[in-house]
Amino acid sequence: MTTIRLFKVMMLSLGLITLGSSVAPVRADYEVQYPTKDAWMGHHRALVILLEWPNRPHQVSQAEVEKTFFGMGENDHSLRQYLLENSGGKFDITGTVLPWTKAKHNWGRLWCMFQEKLADMSDHMSGCSPKTIVREAWAVAKDQIRISDYDSDGDGKIDHLFVVHSGKLWKPRGTPDDVFDYRFKQAQETEVFQSQGIGRIGTMIPIGFFLHESGHNLFGLGDYYGSGPGYEHGHYGIGMWGIMGLGAWGTSSSMPASELFRYPAPYEAASKIRIGWARAQVFTQSMRHVRLRPVEESAEVAVIPLGHYQSSSYFLEYRANRGFSRNQLGNGLLLWQGWDLIQADGRDDLNHGRNLKHRPLPPNKENFGDSSDPFPGSLNVTSYRDPKSGLVIEHIVQTPEYVDFDITFPNAALETESAAAIRPALKTESKSFLPVALNGHAWDFDLYPPRPHGLAPEGKTGSEQPWTKFEGLVR
Fold first, then answer.
1. In Å, how far are 302, 343, 451, 466 from 423, measured between CA atoms?
2. What is the pLDDT, as a whole number, of residue 365?
């Protein structure tokens, strides 16, 4: 008997195909539509379906899942708390976690494969696709669901549908396709999580993975965990100082592997500007005694535009020892040029790690960020001079409640260039917002990003956004 005939006999015996059957094309349930620029603003509602495969009993309680997504306790570190903290209260997500419900089928390679089109079978030999998992979850849980309870904008769809299941992929690491590769027609956003890790990595629900990939999908943010040869060769980019870098994993290279993606670092200052969360103070002339409160409680960011692109401008934030920054190895003023972190110690340790030639998952002894990276930091570095423009940030003082510093432009020409870069952004045609009037050397306003025009592929940086594409607005 040939190998092909033997394979067919095996499939028949398992009931996975019938004589004369063919694999019918699967009709897509949706067409990809990018969300509006305010994708994560206001109050959204979420439904979490817990799906238990009969042959894979769940190991995580409903209460634990509730705490992970919506908990508000001091040590919960929930998805809701993360979004409230990073958005400065501009974005909140609440919802319901349904009890664990048994699936009709077992979690198995062959069953997963044969839910797909023939051309896609090989893509799902490591576990069921999000499409299959979501459809199975909806089939067994739909009688418990009233869509209007989770629809904040009246469009007839659930704002966020999260399906958490008890299966585990048969591969070392999950990919974005294992979480985001399907949008259910009953929901605006649909994501699938293992209840324990992603692939064989970690043992907790990976909210950091969701937040990192959403930065790509919704806001065009790039990957900032290493350039050139990349982090497999000791180039760690921004390390664990931001979620679009290695901070999606957590906040310390010594963290246990079981916690990967569970306690992520905050979004970067420039990322908060693009998302629309930052309370930005923009400086185009010299200023004494600029004060920033802890970003975890204020969402305050100081912006110094130098040119028409964010990558050449400075973004300053005060990371304090609280909230989702609590376990980072240092605290103080983080000084970013675009999405590049200026390390106060001047050593650039983040890009001079060991050439391991493999993914250096925690715990390890690599430097993903340390106490001498912020200003003043453990080395008490109180000033920085931009080598190209001559801009100086100096007299940096840190207290528990604020950091204080001076901004010095070296000449009037740089001040003129800085003002020219941002001033066109004060124009708006929106009747819902008012343009900001200039107020001396600085003015406060919110910056809202344009509608996303494409995904930043894994390993690529997001597209550059000229300042003139941003609207300077206040509510």
1. 16, 30, 20, 12
2. 92
- In terms of pTM, does the model score above 0.85? no
Q: Say what percent of the chain tops pLDDT 90.
A: 59
- Cβ count within 10 A of residue 43: 11
- The vertex-76 CA angle with 209 and 318, nearest 5°, equals 75
pLDDT value of position 153:
92
Cis peptide bond N-terminal to 305, omega within 30: no
CA pseudo-torsion sign 281, 287, 291, 296: positive
Q: How far is CA 190 from CA 67, 113, 158, 201, 210, in A?
A: 20, 21, 9, 22, 11
Query: How many CB atoms lie under 10 A from the CB of residue 180?
Result: 19
Tell me how far apart the alpha carbons of residues 417 and 394 are, in angstroms, rounded to a whole number.
21
